[in-house]
Amino acid sequence: MTPPLLSVAGLGVRLGPVALTRDITFDIASGERVGLIGESGCGKSITGLALLGLLPSGARREGRALFDGRDLPARDEAAWRRIRGRDIAMVFQEPMTALDPVFTVGEQIVETLRSHQRLSRRAAREQAVEMLDKVGIPAPMQRFSAYPHELSGGMRQRALIAIALCCAPRLLIADEPTTALDVTVQAQILDLLFDLAERNGTALLFISHDLGVVADLCTRILTMYAGEIVEDAPTEALLRRPRHPYSAGLMHAMPRLAPRKSRLAAIPGRVPQPGAMPQGCRFAPRCDFRTTACALPPPLAPARGHKARCARQGEIVLSGAI
Ligand SMILES: Nc1ncnc2c1ncn2[C@@H]1O[C@H](COP(=O)(O)OP(=O)(O)OP(=O)(O)O)[C@@H](O)[C@H]1O
Ligand code: SF4
Ligand SMILES: [Mg+2]
Fold it and tell me: Domain 6-218 sits in which CATH superfamily?
């Protein structure tokens, strides 16, 4: 059996005494498309940043992450610079903050290419123009010399995708890559991103609030709640029969995924904050199914072909979206 491309075990991020995330454990196979969903503040971005060695100052990573069988460094910035962009790349939510305003988009691609490959400036320039063309930027020769502020939001996000994919990374982490864009542009950019990734054989960790979009594009879905993974399932299995009440709640709150006849229902209550987590199951204060069995923190345990962090997953039956 080939080992997974990425294997994350017991990963957590601490900021001083506060655990922002804990016990994050999952694998991504080569070329696989995995979605990571959950409400705002649950720790999706922090998890992505930890996998790129880009944690905020003062934050500390716990646990392990293996890429292609090798440990991803905990700190070593020089080692991370060799990995970032070449092995693992990221597309962020806000292209304007991710692009450097003082360099043209072309120069930024050239820089990325030359930091990982021995290439003449001229060869890198040719590849950069080709990359701009691949991401659907019209007149790529001219756009090579454009500064980020001279491009529309959609074009900036395309430029960012060009930078992220120019070194053909094995894994791309895309963190809400289209939320800052017009709805009409969003679908085009996502199609482009998934299409290019597939052609390159790049695996994807796609971070989003939108279970509907993730279900369309990813073959497996990780559900995160209050700093933990609560469910890890193949998309179809999750939509058919979620095993964690929170995943079911997310489905029932989505117009496109809610079971027919049921009314749209937002999940009542609020997400607990890091530093003030419930003692047992973190979802218990919002869960219709809680009993005394939920007073101890449940592990992420196998649940018929997928995994769920629910003490009662064997007893309760949750309806899915299909
Ligand atoms: N730089 C930081 N300094 C301190 N706390 C942070 C920092 N970044 C994130 N956090 C905290 O870590 C937790 C997880 O945040 P994170 O940004 O990963 O959430 P998220 O799931 O990506 O949310 P969203 O959907 O809103 O992007 C939150 O409680 C947040 O307040
Ligand atoms: S462990 Fe209990 S409270 Fe937590 S999700 Fe399962 S049933 Fe609900
Ligand atoms: Mg985020």
Answer: P-loop containing nucleotide triphosphate hydrolases (3.40.50.300)
Reported as a single tens digit per residue, the pLDDT across 276-300 is 999 999 999 999 999 999 999 999 9
262 has a pLDDT exceeding 70: no
pTM over 0.90, yes/no: yes
What stretch(es) of the chain map to CATH 3.40.50.300?
6-218
Around ion ligand 3, which residues have CB less than 5 A away?
A: 45
**Which of 228, 244, 250, 289 to probe ligand 2 with, by most ligand atoms within 8 A of CB?**
289
What's the pLDDT tens digit per position in 159-194? 999 999 999 999 999 999 988 788 888 899 999 999
Of the listed ligands, the closest to the CA of 36 is 1
Report how far ligand 2's centroid is from the alpha carbon of 306 (Å).
17
Give residues with Cβ within 8 angstroms of 20, minimum separation 6: 12, 13, 14, 43, 46, 59, 227, 274
Q: What whole-number distance in Å separates Cα of residue 279 and Cα of residue 259?
A: 32
Which of 191, 127, 132, 128 is CA-nearest to residue 158? 132
Residue 39: nearest ligand to its CA?
1
